[in-house]
Structure formats: structure tokens, C-alpha cells
Amino acid sequence: MSPTSILITGASSGIGEAMALSYAKPGIALFLSGRDRERLSDVTNRCRALGAEAHSRRLDVTDRAMMDAWVGACNGSRPLDLVVANAGISAGTGGNGETAEQARAIFATNVGGVMNTVLPAIEVMRPRKSGQIAIVSSLAGYRGLGGAPAYCASKAAVKAWGEGLRDWLADDGIRVSVICPGFVTTRLTATNRFKMPFLMDSDRAARIIISGLAANRGRIAFPWPMAMAAWLAGALPNRLMEAVSHRLPRK
Question: How is 195-243 classified by DSSP, letter by letter?
């Protein structure tokens, strides 16, 4: 439960950055990816300063061939103990957002990108019957909301997929956890123009996630008041929830 070889996508900012820095210490190998070369290089250098063996690669998780090659190469360098499929993008209907182009891009990254990370990870972990996979979903995946329909749907898809993978891969010795954060201070939430309840910083979120992964929790949902509200939103009768949803601020 103490990984020493860790791959993280979307590591150039937010939760991915905070997790990389939290794991960074002597004896740890980190394989980090992101789209922003400058920020990724900065995170990599900070991880090295903490004593970790850190490697980075600027890439797009929607590129299946590139992801297959990268995950395979990282595992060849040092067998991967933990793979964190964290890269994601967002939009919303505030200001006429979530256009057709945005919706397709959200699904390509948040669903396709997660699959492009997880599937090659399964391939390298299965033969040795060990490893752990973390899929970053969101509390927004508990119920579709009019403020960000494509984002909610993409996170719901990977949430359900991860839950299914956990059961399917258990006999192969591969542990799978689905991470469902509430509002965390990241570049994605920086554009929100409404008050975000229980907003927490990315360092605290990383500590919660890492603790949950060490305990092999199937679902790591936080903070608990938001998790309860999200669960309730998914359980309420549809007509009632539609009335509530229509009054929520647009993302």
C-alpha cells in the first residue's frame, strides 16, 4: 500500500500537482504528464528537490497511441505501483458555454483520456497480479446538472467504469479507487463565478486522496457534507431535483 513508482496525468496543476509533491521523497519514482510545459517542468523540479526521481512528459491524454507508448515506457523503466488518471477539463453553460465543440472535447479528455491511461496500466499490471489504479471523477458525477451537463456526464461515466473495474480486477490483484472531490482550488474552479461551498485547497485534497488510496477505499468522496448532498441529489425524485437544479448557478 506504499507505492514507490507512481504515474500521474494532469500533474502540472491542481490535484495532480499536489499529489505529485505529496508523494515526492527519496526512493520514489514519479512519472508526470501535463499539457503545459512550463508548469510541468516546475512541478518536476520541485519533486526532484524533495528527493524523488521525477520524469515528465508533455502529452495529450486523448492521443491513444502516445499514451500506450508512454505508460509502457514508464513501466519498463520501473514497474508501476500506482497510476492516477487525473487529467481533465471543464466548461459550463454560464456565458453560453458547453458548445458542441466543448462537449466533445470534455468527453474526449475526461472519458477517452481516462481510458487511454487506465487500459494500458491494466495491461502492465495484470501479468504480475499487483498494482493500483486511481480514477479522478467528481461529486458532479452523482447527478446531471444543467450548469455543466457534459462535465457531469463525463465524470459519471468514469465513476461507474471505475466502480465496475474494481470488482472485475480484484481477482487479478489490481486495486481500483474512484476519487470524487467536491470543490477544490484548481485552475478548473478558478473560473467559477459563484460561491463554492466547502471549497478546500489542493494540498488538503491530496492528503485525503492519498490516505484513502493507502486504505484501499473503493470510493474516496469528500468533503463529507458535499458528498452527502451529491448522493441525495442522485436519490431524489427527478421532478423535485429538476426544480432544484434549475435554480443552481451556472458553471
Answer: --TT-B-HHHHHHHHHHHHHTT-SEEEESHHHHHHHHHHHHS-HHHHHH
| DSSP-derived 3-state class of residue 82 | strand
Query: Is 142 one of the catalytic residues?
Result: no
CA dist list (Å): 244 to 172, 235, 239, 251: 43, 13, 9, 15
pLDDT-wise least confident of 68-82, 106-120, 216-230: 216-230
Record the pTM: 0.89
Buried-exposed string 186-210: b where 16+ CB fall within 10 A, e elsewhere: bebbeebeeeeeeebebeebbebbb
Selected catalytic residue, list 31, 70, 107, 151? 151
Residues 152-199 have pLDDT tens digits of 999 999 999 999 999 999 999 999 999 999 877 766 554 656 566 667
pLDDT score of 229 more than 70: yes
pLDDT tens per residue, range 100-143 = 999 999 999 999 999 999 999 999 999 999 999 999 999 999 98
Q: How far apart are CA 94 and CA 61, in angstroms?
A: 26
Nearest to 149 by CA among 193, 96, 93: 93
147-174 core/surface letters (b: 16 or more CB in 10 A; e: else) = bbbbbbbbbbbbbebbbebbeebeeeeb
| 122/71 Cα distance (integer angstroms) | 10
